[in-house]
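[Automated response] Your request has been received and processed.

Submitted sequence:
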Amino acid sequence: MKLTRFRFNSRAFTLVEMLIVITIIAILASLTMGAYTYAMRSSKRRTTTGTFEAIKLALDRYEAEFGEFPEPAGKDQMVEFLAGKSYDTSGAACLYQALTGDGYDQIKGVSSPTGSDSSSAASDGKTEGTAEIKNMMLVEVPRTIWTLKNGRYIIIDAFGRPFQYIKAAVATTGTTGTTGGTGGAATPTATTINSTYDLWSYSEDEVNITKKSIDTQATPAISVKWIKNW
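Generated structure:
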């Protein structure tokens, strides 16, 4: 019997072919990650916008109930959220208390709401008792929109960073005098863009996180990525 021998001609990938395959895989991975990142960012913006609208409605309820919008008791309470990046939490702490009814020491001018005692001044993350429930302006407060940071409860956006809130006020920058020394009227300077309050989220912006709403009047490009009420 004569055996037939088969000879297989196998050929390995050349270096160029391997580089082409690796490049194609890298491009596909990049496109996939880019699409995923975009989808996640878009989802967070939509969620933040929803929370933003809920906050505005709740602030309207607060104003209708108490005759004025809440004012943060603190100022420039900077807390680090990202490595080397700190955010002002004074407005977010005020919003948390004003809209949930949990405490009141972060709201300027509020000493003791009806039915409350001094022990309930600080927030504890719970809404209990007649007074706190009565003062709740947000009908539903999902756990995802607030957090505890440096001992203060604050309202946060979907990016995990504090909402920014400033109540409209008029600050005086001094007086204008006359040559006769009789003096003049104080020069008012607006601290907000709106006549009621300025509310915004820095959203995915990680550069202009110390800028205030009033800063955007001179440089509108600052707030391109923000979600804001002006």
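Summary generated for your ticket: DSSP finds three helices and nine strands in the chain. The chain has one domain: 19-228.
If you did not submit this request, please reply to this message.
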